[in-house]
Write a structure and sequence with these properties.
The complex is a heterodimer. By secondary structure, chain A is an alpha+beta fold. Chain A folds into two domains: 104 residues, Beta-grasp domain (Ubiquitin-like (UB roll)); 135 residues, Alpha-helical ferredoxin (Fumarate Reductase Iron-sulfur Protein, Chain B, domain 2, Orthogonal Bundle). Helix content of chain A is 35%, strand content 14%. Chain A has a five-stranded mixed β-sheet with strand order 2-1-5-3-4. In chain A, strand 3 and strand 4 form a beta hairpin. The longest helix of chain A is centred in the C-terminal third of the chain and has 21 residues. Chain B is mainly α. Chain B has a single domain, classed as Up-down Bundle (3 helical TM bundles of succinate and fumarate reductases). In chain B, 71% of the residues lie in helices and 3% in strands. In chain B, strands 1-2 form a two-stranded antiparallel ribbon. The chains are: A alpha+beta, B mainly alpha. At the A-B interface, helix 4, helix 6, helix 9 and helix 10 of A face helix 2, helix 4 and strand 2 of B.
């Protein structure tokens, strides 16, 4: 007989509730079960109305992010057993600072709009013709941006960042890290176009370097590092504009 | 559905009435140790400023002669100022350590195509800190 643990799950029905409330469910603790397995167990056998996002259950799709005991976590990578040892309850809530659509589902339009704003795609100005073959990169050139390219848009970093909660216009960690991913790519020449969004009070200068985004990132992207590195690059660019005003921005 | 209605339905509404919008408390930083640590780190810059102001007063009194410096020393013996200086010292130590630890994140150094580990970037700062502090102690205690 498997051990049991109580899951306190935030429920919110926009048609019936003024605000979210917690509902407790008892679930078995199997060694290989993660929080997402427990949610699926509840939905399949106890309450089919429980609403949450999930897809790949292997840390790739980034859709099952939730607050687990106050920490932003991918529920597909958060084992029940690590909480059950001390007989603790597990409190599952939707990701912090996002509007709540229903139960554990957050509204992502604002995040997606910010993501688009930083133009996270390659913008080559002097793209060689196809006849020249592939665009080769050295391992060093790949290494410069690879860490930032691991982002799965799970938005855990937004739920960890108090600036996102206090200043809703802040572009946020994942979007800036992704912008930096393209800025650091040797095939891209779009850094100047991204400057208007990034080197702005709502961009990198909104960041106070709390560092929580990096701590909670399940893919070790280090958004806080990306933001600080862009701050230094932006200042150097600004100084350069005084030294070489005519050549600046080209 | 006519064209006007479908257009209206597609309009993005940032203040959807049925979404629940959580409120961020003024005391958001008290609930979690990580946030409290951040606030203490930010607060530490105030105590850095306290030391800077005290140093400026000390230099000013040195410029004004031995009597002024003796008066400065007498003022600094005030128990309240001693407590303030102890608290300031602890905050300045916190400021220094957190600054040194954050520096590798902001300054990625690459050697031979690989990123140098953060500990190796922070280490010279700590070594320099110990050397400078040792030199100042030697100046004061010799």
């Amino acid at each position: 007989m498997a051990d049991k643990i109580i899951l306190e799950i935030a429920r919110y029905s926009p048609e019936q509730d003024q605000q979210p409330y917690f509902q407790s469910f008892e679930v078995p603790v199997y060694k290989e079960w993660v929080v997402l397995d427990a949610l699926n167990h509840i939905k399949d056998t106890v309450d089919g109305t429980l609403t949450y996002r999930w897809s790949c259950r292997m840390g790739i799709c980034g859709s099952c992010g939730m607050m687990v005991n106050g920490e932003p976590k991918l529920t597909c990578a958060t084992f029940l057993s690590s909480y059950a040892k001390n007989g603790r309850k597990i409190r599952v809530e939707p990701l912090r600072y996002f509007p709540i659509v229903r139960d554990l589902v957050t509204e992502l339009s604002d995040f997606l709009a910010k993501l688009t704003k930083v133009k996270p795609w390659l913008m080559p100005k002097d793209e060689p013709p196809l006849t020249q073959g592939e665009f080769l990169q050295t391992p060093e050139q790949v290494d410069r941006y690879k860490q930032f390219s691991m982002c799965i848009n799970c938005t855990l970093c937004y739920a960890a960042c108090p600036v996102v909660g206090l200043d809703p216009v802040f572009v946020g960690p994942a979007a800036i890290a992704l912008a930096q991913r393209y800025n650091m790519d040797s095939r891209d020449q779009g850094a100047a176009e991204r400057t208007a969004i990034l080197a702005h009070p709502d961009g990198v200068w909104g960041c106070t370097f709390v560092g929580e985004c990096t701590r909670v990132c399940p893919k070790h992207v280090d958004p806080a590092g990306a933001i600080q590195q862009y701050k230094i690059a932006a200042v150097l660019d600004w100084v350069k504009s005084f030294v070489t005003p005519r050549g600046h921005g080209t | 559905m006519n064209e006007g209605t479908s257009k209206e339905a597609a309009t993005y509404t940032p203040f959807h009435p049925r979404w629940y919008r959580p409120h961020v408390s003024v005391y958001w930083w008290l609930g979690e140790w990580h946030y409290l640590k951040f606030i203490l780190r930010e607060l530490s810059s105030v105590f850095v400023a306290v030391f800077v102001i005290e140093t400026l007063f000390m230099l000013s009194s040195l410029r004004d002669g031995p009597e002024a410096y003796a008066y400065f020393q007498q003022v600094m013996r005030n128990p309240l100022l001693i407590v303030l200086n102890i608290v300031s010292f602890l905050f300045v130590v916190l400021h220094t350590i957190t600054w040194f630890n954050l520096a590798p994140s902001a300054m990625p150094v690459r050697m031979g195509g690989k990123r140098v580990p953060g500990a190796l970037i922070a280490a010279p700062s700590y070594v320099a800190w110990v050397i400078v502090s040792g030199f100042v102690c030697w100046l004061l205690l010799r």
